[in-house]
């Protein structure tokens, strides 16, 4: 049982840029813990953006899920947190819904009202949750958002079926946007292309992740490609889909996709750092979770690529089948030390900063109001700067 | 381990219309066995049609599967029968490929060359194989087309991932058709709508099938709805997608979809009869396969709906948890007798005939050359008239 990280970005801040508030992210990353909890900025405007995304997209999302044949409608509603396992209405945690928030902003970036992005927000959220349902089953994860995963409650067949259905609905809602007059047929078709390409990259990324589990060494490039697929592709689509539905040209769409893609890689770099050095909520001590699973995350790949003494010692340890999954706290702490000594931690911190900056730079290529730009910047900080 | 039936129509003839050769299927269905093997007609033209579909669609199909990230490309190639489990090229049995053959005919029905239907043929074959990969895993089926199913060779995660990827490719190849100039963007978008709707109905049908396993009674209407989803929806899309890509109007598309839909239900009715009374290749005796699994297939649902003495006795037996899956040949033969006594066998035979006739009647609404019409009629007979 592992914490649901890789494919979700719904966690709280930890790393913070010191040059707070600078819209182009020139600040260097330091650990939030050294600045105290006060450095964490869940600015009201970000929470408003997320709430707006949920409020505007959830009705369409619920009516899409309600279209499914029984009992898939129930399984879907459970997965999204709308009902509990006994079918009673629940004010569940369906995640922060960063993707719908991005899709609405994306429409505004093209000069359209946020409403124009709603089918896009619903689509990316459907595809995101398709991947969660299937990934949880494949990875054997038993909890997500503090609840039992759908496959543990309703069985593997339902998790497969409902995942399949959500992916299909993700295309249907975009085609419907053309029928109901919210978008032209041509723009809806472009949005379908966007989500279809992203979905296939998402699947490619998950396939690479599964394949890496069988290998002792993964290159940094391979790791970035995997994370670009698993996390970058759908965030890229989320950031562009509202603009595409609103008729924006390819130049605008490409720039917004770059913002989302690099934001995804920045998120993932931070997530990988937290996977090793993140502290548990209870003890405040590192849990070494990814090291326990010998996950080939970015800090590990970067450390293995360095080639010095610590790097070679790390490689030997990871190739040794003995003790796998049963290492003591002490052994894992020493291994984390090797990764740090080989530069894996510092490289990944730099990578997070680089990707965050690249994401923000992409925004400069799109003419948009200052307010919309500030919202994109605030959302990026919210996504990248997390505590655990 | 059950024989792979429900979602495949790749089996040999058994039931034959007596008024052989009449293009509108006025013949009544009798069991082929009473007429001897000579009544089975694998006409050369049907085999040519199937070969043409495979020859024209396989290159695009292979290049689509080759796009997948490793090892999904290998898993996909194994599933389609292009390589064996060790990666060596194989002249495998990838199925008869009825759906691609229909898609090419469909383009011709709209007055276009068969080539115009190729992206449609590739798309429906990808979606069909997505459903096979996932269904085999969900149903625990260990063989398909006389080979070990993909999930038994490569594990459940790969079967889930490759299924997901094939479904996504099914949309991508249609969008590509607009880019490469094979179809207008508007027609490609209509084809995407067609395949997306069919995919969701397919998933709904499989979900109903899975749900029915937990129930003692299923109505005839529910059974038909399930089979319409699992088998009718994708055959409907196959019969219309070539015409849609070639710019046919909705009237033509609707009529061709009706042909495919009712053809699917006719196939399924025959399949359900064979599931109970079909003889094994080795012994020539009925294997009672569906009765052993207490499958709520059409003959069973129809018998349960009849309400007489035999019907009530059957209902009691199916509701009795005792002996489930361990009934003797004698008990199963007696149960088959009850179904026949309650009219379930005769009703299903009539249903197959009705659906076959309705399918052929739909062709009358579409102006097409006599040759194309004859090919549709021959394919229908090939699909419906099977031996085991």
Automatic annotation (TrEMBL), chains A, B:
Region (Disordered): 1-29
Signal peptide: none
Gene3D superfamilies in the cross-refs: Farnesyl Diphosphate Synthase
Keyword Transmembrane: no
Source organism, top-level taxon: Bacteria
InterPro entries recorded: Isoprenoid_synthase_dom_sf, Polyprenyl_synt, Polyprenyl_synt_CS
UniProt entry tagged with the keyword Metal-binding: yes
Keywords from the UniProt entry: Magnesium, Metal-binding, Transferase
Family: Belongs to the FPP/GGPP synthase family.
Protein name: Polyprenyl synthetase family protein
Organism the protein comes from: Kitasatospora arboriphila
């Amino acid at each position: 049982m592992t914490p649901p990280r890789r494919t979700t970005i719904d966690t709280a801040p930890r790393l913070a840029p010191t040059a707070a508030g600078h819209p182009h992210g020139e600040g260097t990353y330091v650990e939030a813990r050294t600045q105290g909890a006060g450095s964490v900025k869940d600015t009201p405007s970000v929470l408003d953006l997320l709430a707006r995304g949920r409020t505007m997209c959830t009705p369409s999302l619920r009516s899409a899920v309600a279209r499914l044949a029984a009992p898939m409608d129930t399984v879907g509603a459970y997965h999204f947190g709308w009902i509990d396992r006994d079918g009673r209405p629940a004010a569940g945690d369906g995640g922060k819904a960063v993707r719908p928030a991005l899709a609405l902003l994306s429409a505004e970036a093209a000069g359209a009202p946020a409403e124009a992005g709603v089918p896009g927000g619903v689509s990316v959220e459907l595809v995101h949750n398709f991947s969660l349902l299937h990934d949880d089953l494949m990875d054997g994860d038993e909890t997500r958002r503090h609840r039992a995963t759908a496959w543990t409650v309703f069985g593997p067949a339902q998790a497969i079926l409902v995942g399949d259905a959500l992916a299909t609905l993700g295309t249907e809602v975009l085609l419907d946007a053309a029928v109901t007059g919210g978008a032209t047929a041509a723009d809806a078709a472009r949005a379908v292309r966007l989500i279809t390409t992203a979905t296939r990259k998402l699947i490619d990324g998950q396939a690479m992740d599964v394949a890496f589990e069988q290998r002792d060494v993964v290159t940094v490039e391979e790791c970035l490609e995997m994370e670009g697929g698993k996390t970058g592709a759908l965030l890229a689509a989320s950031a562009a889909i509202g603009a595409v539905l609103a008729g924006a040209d390819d130049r605008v769409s490409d720039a917004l996709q770059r913002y989302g893609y690099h934001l995804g890689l920045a998120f993932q770099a931070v997530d990988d750092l937290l996977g090793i050095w993140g502290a548990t909520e209870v003890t405040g001590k590192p849990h070494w979770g990814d090291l326990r699973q010998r996950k080939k995350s970015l800090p590990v790949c970067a450390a293995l690529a360095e080639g010095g003494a610590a790097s070679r010692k790390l490689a030997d340890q990871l190739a040794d089948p003995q003790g796998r999954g049963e290492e003591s706290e002490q052994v894992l702490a020493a291994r984390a030390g090797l990764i740090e000594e080989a530069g894996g931690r510092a490289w990944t911190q730099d990578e997070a900063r680089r990707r965050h900056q690249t994401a923000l730079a992409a925004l400069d290529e799109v003419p948009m109001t200052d307010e919309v730009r500030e919202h994109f910047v605030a959302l990026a900080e919210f996504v990248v700067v997390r505590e655990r």
